[in-house]
């Protein structure tokens, strides 16, 4: 059975190592508002900041050019850096990049690799916990938006979304709709309908 | 003169309990109505509005974000910054002064420390989380209403916490310990004991007292807080549930 | 500083696990106390307190005041505290920060709540009352400025005399009459480190602490409580702390 839980709510007698769960004396408690399925033991936080993991693709904007690399703004509180060693092209202030998290050190500083510059387009920001819904099961939701709008879309796990070309306006509107209705049922059909009607409800 | 700033006044002039009822008609162990709304602000990561009796308090959370000033950054955990302020129009008296005063600086500190206990700050080293609390209308017990508002706003922002903390003040009025003291009771009562608890393990997160109390009376105030903790927490979770109402349908 | 604190914390915690404190004191023992009254002749009352290596000077000054509009028949009581930069490398010059404000308000709370000073006796005539000003100077901070300041404030109040009122002013240079008091209010501070609780924390114990609590006692009553720090207290710990505070009240009152 799935139910909404709140910080401090008991979840399980065993240790759950997932995001949004807090373990004390071997027992698991919710640490964020979320949906907990006691049958499958899954927990989905309904809100919360992005917590970077190795291998995540995130989107950022170059904010400082330094002798040894680039500082990138990603909406995270900590320093995010691309070293000159890890990138061939040279970047400029204001460049939008998509890159992979190589490493998060113990004080939260992030190094990025495999950076690619995204030329032109615009950036939308959504709550990071809603990112999986925008992508959909096996990328179905995103594929649907791309197909209808003809837009090129790149989604960062940090909740930053780059959109370029096609009907950018409709694509943005659809993504924001998914964010606000992230956990309602039949969302895929709803969005398909929304896109078909060109963004009119 | 701001609330609670100058201690207790002349008691013998004011009757606060008549036939077992308090000035607002409540029983000794009765709390004022508590209403909470979560997520009413749009720009903040999380927010909450609390009406507790005639208290009206709004709280907003920003972050985790870059720590400013930079040298305040802590490599072990996020810095939690709490700002409690009372509006100049918060009481029936004359227009008050804006901005922080000694009282609000102290309350900001004890509220921050109470919240630091439950917020999992270790998740965000070097970062900063801001909690802004504005008391729009004050009627006794604003620090407890503020803690409740901050608690809901933090949860609404998805900041990981060990528990949803709760708070309620008890007081001594005409030699009796009463739950949730109102403004007049606070001004003319014999003691005021605001208490914040983590409901799950009953940890005491905030405890202040002014006035005169015996040890037994102090623990009666703690009994009240422990008894009300689940009730207040229910009000907090209901507010959050409402804010995410559409989420559970699937 | 944060890194240093973590190192000190682990050392202090390690000792406490073995039931020891760095200076070999028992868990609830106070450091040696010395109280000198009347050290500042320009003040109507004063006291210099040493608690171990922590030193606090308290003074009591009077001035002619207007009463607060909602208490027209009462005198004014006001307490300020300064954490002087000479007292500790962590104290910085500038207006009182939250720690100094907390100290002033917590010491004030005990004196005020205990009602040991009859503020109605400070009434002179319509719109004229005595104002009693307590200034707390932390000169040397080696842990637990709360209890040193509370003891100094109480000793200074005990030492104070009220200047006579003459021709519309206070005759500050004339010999005053001793201030009448109905009792003594003193505060006692405990810190919690891990799950251990100690009284009268040393500086390292202050830096290592998870939580602190200061309890004011006046006779058989509690007259103030202030919990601070990110740690929490359990109900049974609070009970023990209150009991020991009453014990320490009997012990420390003799220094007044």
Pattern of helices and strands of chain C: HEEEEHEEHEEEEEEHEEH
Gap from first CA to last CA of chain C: 37 Å
Shape of chain B: globular
Series of H and E elements of chain B = EEEEEEHEHEEHEEH
Helix share, percent of chain B: 25-40%
Measured as a percent range, the helix fraction of chain C is 25-40%
User: In DSSP terms, counting alpha (H) and pi (I) runs of 4 or more, how many helices of chain C?
Assistant: 5
**Fraction of residues in β-strands of chain B:** 25-35%
Adjacency order of strands in the biggest sheet of chain B: 3-4-5-7-6
Protein architecture, described:
Chain A has helices at 131-135, 140-149, 168-180, 187-196; strands at residues 2-5, 10-12, 21-24, 27-30, 34-37, 42-45, 57-66, 69-73, 80-83, 96-104, 110-118, 122-125, 152-155, 160-164. Chain A is α+β, with helices and mostly antiparallel strands. Chain A has a 5-stranded mixed beta barrel. In chain A, strands 1-5-6 form a 3-stranded antiparallel sheet, with no helix packed on it. In chain A, a hairpin with a 4-residue loop joins strand 5 (34-37) and strand 6 (42-45). In chain A, helix 2 runs parallel beside helix 4 and helix 3 (168-180) packs antiparallel against helix 4. The mean pLDDT of chain A is 92. The longest helix of chain B is centred in the C-terminal third of the chain and has 29 residues, at 215-243. With 250 residues, chain B is α+β, with helices and mostly antiparallel strands. In chain B, a hairpin with a 2-residue loop joins strand 1 (17-18) and strand 2. Residues 1-10 of chain B have low confidence and may be disordered. In chain B, 59% of the residues are buried. With 256 residues, chain C is an alpha+beta fold. Chain C has one domain: Ribosomal Protein S5, domain 2 (2-Layer Sandwich). Chain C is 29% helix and 33% strand. The longest helix of chain C has 19 residues, at 235-253. The radius of gyration of chain C is 19 Å and the shape is elongated. Classes of the chains: A alpha+beta (201), B alpha+beta (250), C alpha+beta (256). Chains in contact: A-B, B-C. The B-C interface holds B 1, 6-10, 74-76, 102-103, 105-106, 108-110, 113, 116-117, 191, 193, 198, 202-215, 218-219, 222, 226 and C 2-3, 6, 68-71, 98, 101-102, 104-105, 109, 112-115, 213, 218, 220-235, 238-239, 242-243, 246. Strand 11 of chain B pairs antiparallel with strand 14 of chain C, so a sheet runs across the interface.
